[in-house]
Amino acid sequence: MDNSILLISDLAFEYKLGPKIHFPNFEMKAGEHSLLLGDSGSGKSTLLNLIAGFSKPLQGEVRIQHQSIYQLQGSGRDKFRAQQIGFIFQEAHFLKNLTVMENIQLAQSLAGFETDKEAIERLLNYLQIGDKKKAFPHELSRGQLQRVAIARALINKPALLIADEPTASLDDNNTTLVLNLLLDTAQQYGSTLLIATHDKRVKDSFSNTIQLNNLQR
Ligand SMILES: Nc1ncnc2c1ncn2[C@@H]1O[C@H](COP(=O)(O)OP(=O)(O)OP(=O)(O)O)[C@@H](O)[C@H]1O
């Protein structure tokens, strides 16, 4: 086995009442970090949904550590996704009646793992929000919530960490801070990092870029 984490080949998707999108072939190896670049509407979110197995392609394949995501069904696919992929969305959603600690424990349970409070505390401390473990989501600032989102995405040490537009609404200082945090934490937890963005400011931090083409209209 080589160290292939993500392989995209011959992938295309068609919306029922929308465009047909062809994606470029690419592969990510363990420990790499890549930027998925494309203008608004070029298909970044569509590709992330395909990688996660939330939607099925018209053709082609997504393999995560050699496993075809579409060959898995139902709860098997859900568990595989929870174990192998960590997601950070532009707007993080947490269960508002659960504390930070409980929200992250839930991510462990959904992946079929025993909850491990010490591992969560270590990760929260690494992200400098250890003092917030008993807080509820509405008691945190946006920056703190983003760190909780990073913790939740990484707690299961996923092979692949995907961040969708993590810097879209941030000023330059916070953009650098969040990028460095993502890069450092992904490395610390052994995850391969794919960041989807149309934020040109982040380009310089990445040697690997995957460019989506604008759709023909
Ligand atoms: N449910 C849908 N039905 C029809 N067309 C859709 C649907 N969702 C997205 N599209 C179209 O598919 C294309 C790709 O959309 P997608 O959301 O993947 O782009 P994106 O690169 O993530 O954009 P953004 O950066 O603005 O989030 C766009 O042209 C969009 O209008």
TrEMBL record:
<dbReference type="GO" id="GO:0005524">
    <property type="term" value="F:ATP binding"/>
</dbReference>
<dbReference type="GO" id="GO:0022857">
    <property type="term" value="F:transmembrane transporter activity"/>
</dbReference>
<dbReference type="InterPro" id="IPR003593">
    <property type="entry name" value="AAA+_ATPase"/>
</dbReference>
<dbReference type="InterPro" id="IPR027417">
    <property type="entry name" value="P-loop_NTPase"/>
</dbReference>
<dbReference type="GO" id="GO:0005886">
    <property type="term" value="C:plasma membrane"/>
</dbReference>
<dbReference type="InterPro" id="IPR015854">
    <property type="entry name" value="ABC_transpr_LolD-like"/>
</dbReference>
<feature type="domain" description="ABC transporter">
    <location>
        <begin position="6"/>
        <end position="215"/>
    </location>
</feature>
<dbReference type="InterPro" id="IPR003439">
    <property type="entry name" value="ABC_transporter-like_ATP-bd"/>
</dbReference>
<dbReference type="GO" id="GO:0016887">
    <property type="term" value="F:ATP hydrolysis activity"/>
</dbReference>
<keyword id="KW-0547">Nucleotide-binding</keyword>
<dbReference type="Pfam" id="PF00005">
    <property type="entry name" value="ABC_tran"/>
</dbReference>
<keyword id="KW-0067">ATP-binding</keyword>
<protein>
    <submittedName>
        <fullName>ATP-binding cassette domain-containing protein</fullName>
    </submittedName>
</protein>
